[in-house]
Amino acid sequence: MSKQVAAFGEVMMRLQVPGYELLSQANHLKYSFSGSGVNVLSALTRYGHQGSLVTRLPEGPLGDAAIASLRKLGLHSGYIERGGQYIGMYFLEDGFGARPGRVTYTDRAGSSFNTAPQDTYSFARLAGKADAVHFCGITLAMNDGVRAAMKSYAEAVRLRGGLVVFDCNYRPSLWGEGGYERAKPHYEEMLHLADIVLMNEQDAMFILGLEAVSGEREGQLQELIPEVASRYSLCTVAGTQRTIHEDNRHSLRGYIFKAGSFSFSDTLTFTVLDRVGAGDAYTSGIIHGELEGFDPQHTVSFACAAGVLAHTVAGDTPMSSEQEVFRMLMNPGGDVLR
Question: Which residue of 77, 213, 241, 283 has the fewest CB atoms within a 10 Å radius of its CB?
Fold first, then answer.
């Protein structure tokens, strides 16, 4: 049975340089609309759920274009408020070989979402309309007003028995100097409100300040994630470990910690077309498995396959159906479908 899933977050305009050119070389850009909540909900609608974005967009052609894009992805737009003047934008330059990709933000602080007045959203009403609501650490980094709104919504969801999903998604460039210290109390508040959390051992060490005896990532994960789950009374903690190779191939392994034990996906190695948004695809797979009652091994395998498939699609937004993810699990890299 399909579930009602909402997400609270900003809609961004993505302006992509063609091919592997630099901004200083290009003379035209391709635009689209995305955002962590948009990406997660888009995937979940393809798995059969109903997705609604809680956000604020400007009046006028840009806001209209963003809403049209969301509707094309199958998202419900009835919870979108209108107001303010700007939409957040980022420029994307794809990396190649030794040169990493680069994201440059602009207009974000003054966007309609990030300047929304305190009484913009009716969280008491919205909280009762979703089985689960997704929140992102990127949103938590914006400003005090957005942080307060995010926590109020999460509290309302929890009060009404919905699932609070929190993806740590720490971005150093958004928190600035001394970011870990500034971010920690806000992350702790969200962790206390959450049921399902997306994070890894590095989040536990750098954001929460936890210490591990082991010097290896695997050992750190095994030590710290159970401690985080216990400290914040979390139902489920999940995440990925990524290895980047020199030939544009990545390896990804997912984990899930639930009911006191770990389950791991196979390590999948693949060639990358577009990396942005792939973490949101993994998150959507975890949410789907939890909503559908998959066993943990099934959930983490599904989520990892969904994340891998997202690397093969241009754009931020995951586009794979549940059937396509299952096909990837059964026959990775199969022949042409005819």
Answer: 213
Calculate the alpha carbon distances from 270 to 1, 247, 250, 278, 297 in Å. 33, 10, 6, 13, 21
The residues facing 12 across adjacent strands are 34, 88
> Phi/psi at 38 (nearest 5 deg)?
-60, -45
CA-CA distance, 113 to 53, in Å (whole number)? Answer: 12
Rg (C-alpha) for the chain, rounded Å, is 19
Sheet-wide strand order for 102-106: 30-34, 12-16, 88-93, 102-106
Predicted pLDDT at 253: 95
Which tokens sit at 85?
A: 């003047």
Lowest-confidence range among 35-39, 105-109, 234-238, 331-335?
Answer: 331-335
Residues 280 and 16: their CA atoms lie apart, in Å, by 19
- Residue 30 is classified by DSSP as E
Q: CB within 8 A of 151, min separation 6: which ones?
A: 189, 190, 193
Scanning the structure block, which residue is given the tokens 């709104």? 149
Q: Give the per-residue pLDDT at 312.
A: 87
26-35: pLDDT as tens digits: 999 999 999 9
pLDDT 10s digits, 138-195: 999 999 999 999 999 999 999 999 999 999 999 988 898 899 999 999 999 999 999 9
* Cα 296 to Cα 294: distance, rounded to the nearest angstrom: 6
Distance CA 316, CA 38 (A): 9
Q: Does residue 59 contact residue 36 with C-beta atoms inside 8 Å?
A: no
CB 115 within 8 A of CB 87: no
Separation of alpha carbons 128 and 121, rounded Å: 13
Residues 78 and 54: their CA atoms lie apart, in Å, by 9
Residue 282 confidence (pLDDT) above 70: yes
* Burial per residue of 264-296, b for 16 or more beta-carbon CB atoms within 10 angstroms, e otherwise: bbeebebebebbbbbbbbbbbbbbbbbbbebeb
H/E element holding 152? Answer: helix 144-159
In contact, 59 and 23? CB cutoff 8 Å: no
